[in-house]
Amino acid sequence: MIYREAGEYKTSYDADSRTFPIKFDRMGYYTAMAVAFLVVPFIINDYWASAVAVPFLIYVIAALGLNILTGFAGQVSLGTGGFMAVGAYACYKLMTGFPEVSIFFHVLIAGGVTAIVGVLFGLPSLRIKGFYLAVATLAAQFFLVWLFNKVPWFYNHSASGQINAPERTVFGIAVTGPNTDAWAKYLFCLIFVVVLAWIARNLTRGSVGRKWMAIRDMDIAAEIIGVNPLMAKLTAFAVSSFFVGVAGALFFSVYLGAVEVGEAFGIQKSFLVLFMIIIGGLGSIFGAFAGAAFMVLLPVLLKNILVGGLGWPTDLAAHLEFMIVGGLIVAFLIVEPHGLAQLWRLAKEKLRLWPFPH
Amino acid sequence: MKDMSEGYVTADGRKIGGVLMEMKNITLRFGGVVAIKDISFDIREGEIRAIIGPNGAGKSSMLNVISGFYIPSEGEVFYKGSKRPQMRPYQVAQQGIARTFQNIALFEGMTVLDNIMTGRLTNMKSNLFQQALWYGKANEEEMANREKVERVIDFLEIQSIRKTPVGRLPYGLKKRVELARALAAEPSLLLLDEPMAGMNVEEKEDMSRFILDVNDEFGTTIALIEHDMGVVMDLSDRVVVMDYGKKIGDGTPDEVRNNQDVIDAYLGVAHD
């Protein structure tokens, strides 16, 4: 009943093209931001941070990145894990090479390095499309993991072949390393998520985003109305890889702390992020959040119900968890192939009329 | 044909200017198939120029040569007085040539508004970083272009479907949105590939009115391909007739109508 756009008049194009044109949506957004910044940091504990909040936030960034490439620009990529590894290793090299520089910049530069690598592996997209491009990015995935395993320079010749995040601070508060508080990890990631989601929204509402979507929907027509396909595809690869690189850097430095490349950034990571954007909704910023939430929260929830609630053995619960998550994904895609974002959109359309549909 | 180097005045009193685009001895081959054989004609500023001919005559190929999608095997294209070097289609678009397609080529996943906004892309210059942070030119430019697009939306009377995804629209409206997208670019030369294909009489009348209005209000030069002879003869100032990749007639609708080759091509005679 409260959710109405009736009675909200817009007198400028500026007001009409806002991210949340309806007042109710705007209030919801402000509330969510206030809770995320002012409430959650005070109540979060180690379990919630490491099991739910931090991985959710980091996967949101990765999903935003892949969604820009696949959902908006239409270039299928299976190299997400590999690009996350680039971000992680770039961050590691920067952290150990320039300890006096803030970790904040390390993460950003790691994103930049990944962007360059992403553009290189995006070059084949100029000639190949669809499944064939997916296979080409798969090559990137395997090559990058192999590279970080094979060349000792990347892991500073450590005996285990792992990389470990040393302690780094922001304003005197540790955000990486074993002595980090849950709220610091959470806030550090949250800031990246908010800023990057805002950037993703800006890019997809303006001319760059329209170029990407034009290429996605019909590349020949896009070129004839004046889109340079080379630039459009490569900027999509660059921006997407930047996001994924930042996600990889945070995944390594803040979340895991110690990484073995094949385990943390293998092909399953690529598929996980791809599932997220398909379930969340291709070509939707909200979809990246919804998909990441679905894939991160559901297993945790199931585990809590099966092991904590019903008292089943852990191994049985773990197997069932796989089956249930898989089954839910399939069932879900049959019901709504356009993902959670589309469900959300439909719900809002229904709400506009509720409870008087006529 | 009379000398028209300085332009001419049409029957309804519109002044037609100098040559905007000239095709000189264009030949287009696909392997052994010759789609266009040594064709020359010109398009003058402010005129409505039709290209007609039976199926497979090479009309669409000719339009594709103009819009840079095909590169002619031989011959030269002169645009605004200078020879056009070989360029990619998006560069042709940047020079002020916009087009519509025979089979609608809209971006189905985007709204009508976004589709038409893509027509303004060649005019939007803010870079990636400005857009990422939405500072500087980004918003200003977006609003200025939105205003131009809204003018086109008003002109083509599609205000009510502004925020509808294109995929949900019926055929006739899609055609209109495609015209809107081409118009939004404020082209100096507008190419229409069968703008009335598959329309009923009413929709055809609407479309004809829009084409005439575009030409009249914005002074846009229009080159169009169309099969409906009634429409072609009524709308266009001059007509090029093609058959089997060759030009068989060129002139005012009246001249073309009385041209024996054209009559033969349409009614059919034995080819040897």
Automatic annotation (TrEMBL), chain A:
Record field: transmembrane: 27-44, 50-69, 76-95, 101-123, 130-148, 183-200, 237-259, 271-296, 316-335
Gene Ontology cellular component annotations, sorted alphabetically: plasma membrane
Localisation: Cell membrane
Topology within the bilayer: Multi-pass membrane protein
InterPro entries in the record: ABC_transp_permease, LivM-like
Pfam families (UniProt xref): BPD_transp_2 (PF02653)
Keywords: Cell membrane, Membrane, Transmembrane, Transmembrane helix
Coiled-coil spans in chain: none
CDD domains in the record: TM_PBP1_LivM_like
Predominant subcellular localization, coarse grouping: membrane
Keyword Transmembrane helix: yes
GO molecular function: branched-chain amino acid transmembrane transporter activity
Protein name stated in the entry: High-affinity branched-chain amino acid transport system permease protein LivH
UniProtKB/TrEMBL annotation, chain B:
Family annotation (InterPro entries): AAA+_ATPase, ABC_AA/LPS_Transport, ABC_transporter-like_ATP-bd, BCA_ABC_TP_C, P-loop_NTPase
Enzyme class, broadest EC rank: hydrolase
UniProt-listed Pfam families: ABC_tran, BCA_ABC_TP_C
GO cellular component assignments: plasma membrane
Keyword Mitochondrion: no
UniProt EC number: 3.6.3.25
ABC transporter domain boundaries: 21-269
GO molecular function: ATP binding; ATP hydrolysis activity
Superkingdom, taxonomy of origin: Bacteria
Keyword Nucleotide-binding among record annotations: yes
Keywords associated with the record: ATP-binding, Hydrolase, Nucleotide-binding, Transport
Protein name as annotated: Sulfate/thiosulfate import ATP-binding protein CysA
